[in-house]
Amino acid sequence: MARRPLPRILRSGSASITRSREIARTAADSATDVLHPLFTVSRGLRRLAAAGRARWAATPKERRGPTLFLAAAGVLVVALLPYGPLLALISLMAAAAWKGRERPVERTGPDEAETARLRALYEALVPYFSVPDDPSPLFSHGGEWSGAFSDFAFDADGRPTRLRIAYPAYFPDGDPASRARIEHVLHAKCGRGREYLFDWDEEGNRLVMCVLPALPVSVAAQRFVTVPGETVLGFTDADAVQRTVPVRDGEATRDAPAVVWRTGPRATEPHLLVVGQPGAGVSTLLRSIALQALLHGGDVLVLEGCGSGEYACLSGRDGVLGVECGPVGALNALEWAVRATERRLAVAHEARQAGRPAPTELRRPLWILLDRLGVLGDLAAAEGRPDPQELLQVPLRHGRAAYVTVVVGEQFDTVDVLGASVRAHTRAHVTLGAATPEQLTDVLGAPPHTTPPPQVPPGRGYVRLGTGPVLRLQVPATPDPYDDEAPEPHRRAVLDLLAVHPTEPPEPAPPRDSPLPAGEPALPA
């Protein structure tokens, strides 16, 4: 049987129907936009009426009569005032519009994916935060995670960026190994490739985990706003230190949280030990310290064990006493430094005995920078000469009173050759580059509270001044200006600082009857 054709309205009217629907939808949207103020005012009037009814219902019966009387009196006063009804109507419409405005919907909790991640994290912590004898465990398989987790936040990918964890009081939070296990689990479950900070509150049985932003690496060497005796080792997190210094970061100027190391007679950490991996930035930090010492009018003596020429840019500059690379020149320079330290110490002692302040020439600090001290010791032993560490004991022991500061740079694989005297007197410690937790603890004396960064740029590490906390550190970019592979702006910044004269030029020598000699003896040729 042949098919009968569809009616014409069904065969050719689909396009017109679709067009009619679009026209109707456009008209509805336009009407909604035009009538939106009316909808807002109507919604506000309903909310005001509902609030008035709720207020009237909450008013005691004995107070309803006086309330009605006061309301009627107010209406009468408004009616008798010039333009009173109009102003009252305008005020009512404004209140209704404010009350009926659409507020953005605020999230009151995690979504489904975030809840699943928190539940998985809770289950992963159960074996570490629970014991079989606990009658009311805070962590249990299949338990409620909301009782243990609070103050949580997530990034765009749904990974936790902040989390506060309540743990039972019997957990051994004073044991570093127990802490390390919890931190490892959190690091693995919350997402690798980020740097986490763990803040343990042993008194309140709380652990706060948060994701740290990467430290900026764009700050180059420059004249920092410090006084003599203060050296900027680098920059850290904003909430880790209380002091900021203005820095030039590219074309902009901002305040950056700085790690300031203080030296001199009143310093508690007069000497510094820098340990790092090859290429991690040990020479960069020593160059930065040398430039800051020269800008403050100090004398700098550089002793390099590896002979790579990293400090050739300092040769012949004002205030640089010498740059020695070989074992013979380094030992001769150290012997001179020992005599200079003893002479400075004697002059300072005589000034104190006479009740006078230290002479100006004595207060001109002497900086001894040693890069790869272990290599210098090996070279000296091969030539049958004394160990440089034995000569270094006098500047280390008496350097604080004699205005002598020692900075030792070494690598992790040779840090064991440093003697007990060097390790004991260098109370300020810096580690640069990738390192294991055991290596960091051995150098710093305490483990850091953060996980290792996913990528370690040059000059990135940790610092600890004395018995203070372990802080993240990013050394200002201070490359060798003669290195063609270094960025041109950073090289130019170092050359500009080398061309700057010191801020405090030395004063004229004291008269002949003064107990201080006119100057230090010259370095041996």
UniProtKB/TrEMBL annotation:
UniProt key word Transmembrane: yes
Region (Disordered): 497-525
Keywords of the record: Membrane, Transmembrane, Transmembrane helix
Biased composition (Pro residues): 503-514
Gene3D superfamilies, per database record: P-loop containing nucleotide triphosphate hydrolases
InterPro entries registered for this protein in UniProt: P-loop_NTPase
SUPFAM superfamilies reported in the protein's UniProt record: P-loop containing nucleoside triphosphate hydrolases
Transmembrane feature ranges: 68-98
Coiled-coil intervals, chain numbering: none
Domain of life: Bacteria
Nuclease is among the record's keywords: no
Name assigned to this protein: FtsK domain-containing protein
Source organism phylogeny: Bacteria, Bacillati, Actinomycetota, Actinomycetes, Kitasatosporales
